[in-house]
Amino acid sequence: MTGIESKNYSSMTEGKRLVHQVVVPPKDSFAIETGRVVRETFFHDVGPLDWFKGVSRRQQCLLALKYAFPIVDWLSTYKLNTFLYDLLAGVTTASVAIPQDLGYASLLGIPAVYGLYTSVVPPLVYAVFGTSRNTSIGIVAGVTLLLGEMLKREISPTADAANYLRLAFTATFFAGVFQAGLGILRLGFITEFLSHASIVGFMAGAAFIISLQQLRGLFNIAPAHFSRHTDLVSVVRSVLDHTDEWNWRTIVMGIAFFAFLSMTKFLAKKKPRLFWVAAIAPLVSVIISTALVFLTRADKHGVMIVGYVKKGMNPSSAHQIFFSGPFMYSAVKIGLVTGLVALTEGLAIGRTFATLCDYRMDGNKEMMSFGFMNIFGSLFSCFVSTGMFSRSALSYNAGGLTPMSNIVMAIIVAITLSVLTPLIYYTPSCILSAVVISAVLTIIDLKALWLIWKVDTLDFLTSLGAFFGTLFVSIEIGLLTAVCISFVKILFNITRPHTAILGKIPGTTVYRNMAQYLKATSVPGILAIRIDSAVYFSNSAYIHDKILVYLEKEKQRLGKIDGPKVCYLVIDLTPVTNIDTNGVIAFERIEKAMKKHGIQLAFANPGTSVLRKLDNSDFLARLGSEWVFMTVGEAIQVCSILMNHQDA
Amino acid sequence: MTGIESKNYSSMTEGKRLVHQVVVPPKDSFAIETGRVVRETFFHDVGPLDWFKGVSRRQQCLLALKYAFPIVDWLSTYKLNTFLYDLLAGVTTASVAIPQDLGYASLLGIPAVYGLYTSVVPPLVYAVFGTSRNTSIGIVAGVTLLLGEMLKREISPTADAANYLRLAFTATFFAGVFQAGLGILRLGFITEFLSHASIVGFMAGAAFIISLQQLRGLFNIAPAHFSRHTDLVSVVRSVLDHTDEWNWRTIVMGIAFFAFLSMTKFLAKKKPRLFWVAAIAPLVSVIISTALVFLTRADKHGVMIVGYVKKGMNPSSAHQIFFSGPFMYSAVKIGLVTGLVALTEGLAIGRTFATLCDYRMDGNKEMMSFGFMNIFGSLFSCFVSTGMFSRSALSYNAGGLTPMSNIVMAIIVAITLSVLTPLIYYTPSCILSAVVISAVLTIIDLKALWLIWKVDTLDFLTSLGAFFGTLFVSIEIGLLTAVCISFVKILFNITRPHTAILGKIPGTTVYRNMAQYLKATSVPGILAIRIDSAVYFSNSAYIHDKILVYLEKEKQRLGKIDGPKVCYLVIDLTPVTNIDTNGVIAFERIEKAMKKHGIQLAFANPGTSVLRKLDNSDFLARLGSEWVFMTVGEAIQVCSILMNHQDA
């Protein structure tokens, strides 16, 4: 007991108690304070652990097993009925996955078969550890493009294909290590620094770039002749510089199937019950176009085809990972960046569907699943994979209920790899390009952009920064621009916080911002100001100046109307959630300045930590703790009474 | 008119009006919004300009002249009485300035006379433009050390003295350009990013380092044999490695005068009226020790002396400034860093005395004065100068009332340069070291450190970071560490904001944090939560999760005591000063989740911009604008009535 609690804060009005006590809360020990910070930073989403108490040892083991391996949880209550839905969802996603995987592999500049490998191992691993029921796993456009761009900066995929592949596996391995590490250390909040606005802008930019990359396939240009850069100018120049390679058969076929795919999408949008038409359209396109090429032998007329795809399941790549040398360091860097972007995207998708279907997804466990699936994946010839929005949405529409849909999809792709690869031989490259373009254009979310524009102009700027940065420079610069704009925005809000003059709402004791509530009226002789931000070093000087300017204006106003002089300054601290040493000093300087002007300072509704800090600095004792009130209303009531008392 | 204002927000209770309307404020146009941001960012400290209206053209010109050249303002009403005070203040500061300037020059590794030059031109320029009455101008320890450290990294002061000097002048020139530019562009808020805690830590570290540097003079070690690094380890090694150069006469004299200086300081602290004893002590020490050396010819026994000091006023150095070449780029960088640090220190000192003497100091004009004095200074052989705390305090104690004290000081130093330099010939170096150590040790502000420790543990960490970074690595690293810790602290507060469950204060309609007000009670069936921060991308997921966890806990609590189930969730938005797209999405997800649980969401007291954004995003229309209340009390009142109505 420091005697703080026994201070009498309402001694001014004798006899009748007018105001409520505001006592300084006892200081928490350093250990308790640190514990709180650690809990809120790392374990805020852990609910009460009561379900673990009061059950037998055997049940506790089962619960722990279910916690570690969510598959145990849902498989123990799995029903045939559920499986039918998951089967449909799995078949639907596989039919999109196969052409997409073949197409996306070209973004990396590697044989198409590696795209298929990545739809086998990671989804299986995810099914064991994942906590999202709808997330469908695969290589996604944006991450793959980013990975390819960063890899190509280290090694050329055409000149040194073997080391390029090794570097890709190593980067995937470290991406997984990094993701799992973040989950284990519960540092998931790092992914929150990518705002919605940045992601929308980045996705739109990436969709554009990916579509541009696919122009290569559509126009039948050889990979070696195509730009290694991803920006708009280089790509368009690549296409226009090689008109000699253009092939009318390829172009016509590509555009025709692109039109077909777009039509089915339009149909699915108009009549949601026909979603399956759009879902199977890519597979249908691949089958028809492959048959066409086979029958007309268009490949003899220059139409590029996928060609020989190695039969068989994922080969092991464990021995190919660099565990030393300069390439390892490059791979760590690439893994860090792509792992973080993949995580952000995957988690956002998981959160979306968890909200739609009303279940809790554990962010940190989800990160660990992503990490494990990429670590395992890198040992079996897979690349960085994550949750895919388009496929997850298909799975959700098809009624998928558990991660079983991922297992079904993986099995179908595995069967394709083992048996059906010869059928892919005649698949024209242009059809894969058409499938990819048609898929990625849907991730340009104009509706979201429109909403952002309506809600927050600065957020819209963030989106534009990410979009144009991605489109004209590179994906990393795009993301970096967006993150920087986001933080500058926050810093601006902290450096120049909002302040308001408060007035009384007629007929109440409630005081509100006079600029917002036009009916609110001020009390002559008392100036009430609300500070709408924590008071930190970055804004303490501003707040100090601002309050003095308000005071000066009020004096001038009162001077004009021949009103009373200002006797009291009440500062509403409700929104002041924290304060630092600079803040305390600013308040001390305000108090001194007020004293010189013969004005009494009073505070209303300070929070726990603010009150404690003002007390620790002895400022409260100097001010007189009777000048701290629970509400602005009570503060002004007391000031009015004292003012009338002085007049009388 | 969008019809927003005509919505009836209190239609639930027929007949009797229970609650107050919360109308969505009309949207400001983009231009008005931008104008507000610009005004608050750049012109927040400009009060009403009424003094400029309604006067004659001639008076307007005079006012403008006074605004541009503050010297016109104070000189037009200058009185002899005022001059006497300023004369005393000027003489006192000059008596400290001369020995300090000679000593600080050694921090830069240049002839002592340059230190004196810097006390002539900059104070004169400052007197014309400055708005602080007490700031005394000169080269200060911290900035000079930083300047020296950065210069020596480019050019050696012993090997290439001519270019070293040129680089120093160029850096000073660009520091001035940078400072004046910040003032003209009104970007002064950049200096606010150095928090009080960082400055206290940095100053203490710099004081230690400067004292260490002075060990060279105290132990009589030749400059060429002394470490060029400033960190603790290198300096102590330098001293111990050259015991052969130690000179007992130097050491005894240095320590004796250091003891004398310390004693006078102690005396001045005990009896503030004797401050002049401490003020003239440095000059007395210099005079006595110089006489001693001259009489005993101690310089023949190895005692280092200042030696020949060039007679005459500041030579021009305009032709020595690099306006091209690689040195220019280095100088721009050095000027930027030292200019910013000098500005921060000078402004802080100005603000301190402005508060003490209750007058307004114009931050941006002050920056321009600093800029002009450094630009002019660099043309007349001066180095980066700024306001000095120790001398300003002396000037304040001596009763200085206007910048005239700077003019007096400059004239005295100029006379010394013109006439008295031969007298300095026999001044021993050790006495200058003793004066400098004695001066800088006072800037170690243990009281401030103790206050910081009491108020804010994280701020204390910032101080320690700045202190140890400066002491063991370098001044830049020290400052950088401090700035980083400060920002991480702010980001933590934004990423994991405080939230509180609200309860009713008995006998009122006021709702407050139940953890702070232990008497507050919750209303069964209604959960009221306050979010203590703006809702941004960096915390929207946390706030979403946190609210769901609160709800889960409340359900469990009610389940145990067999209470009613939760029907209403009231979110108090009073401290939510802003919101971005992520925040809107988080609220939408909370609303959806609540709907699934059959819980009605309500908001209390949203601010102007939050309300507008919720409305723009159509969220308000979906929620139903009748669920937005002016106070938590009214929200809960309505919810209670509806709950009872359902039960009945």
TrEMBL record, chains A, B:
Transmembrane spans: 107-129, 164-187, 193-212, 246-268, 274-295, 370-389, 401-424, 431-453, 465-488
Pfam families: STAS, Sulfate_transp
Domain of life of the source: Eukaryota
GO cellular component, one term: membrane
Keyword Nucleotide-binding: no
Keyword Lipoprotein: no
STAS domain mapped to chain residues: 516-639
Membrane topology: Multi-pass membrane protein
A Gene Ontology molecular function term of the record: secondary active sulfate transmembrane transporter activity
Keyword annotations of the record: Membrane, Transmembrane, Transmembrane helix, Transport
Record's subcellular location: Membrane
Secretion signal, residue range per the UniProt entry: none
UniProt cross-references to NCBIfam families, sorted A to Z: sulP (TIGR00815)
Name of protein: STAS domain-containing protein
Source organism (scientific name): Ceratodon purpureus (Fire moss)
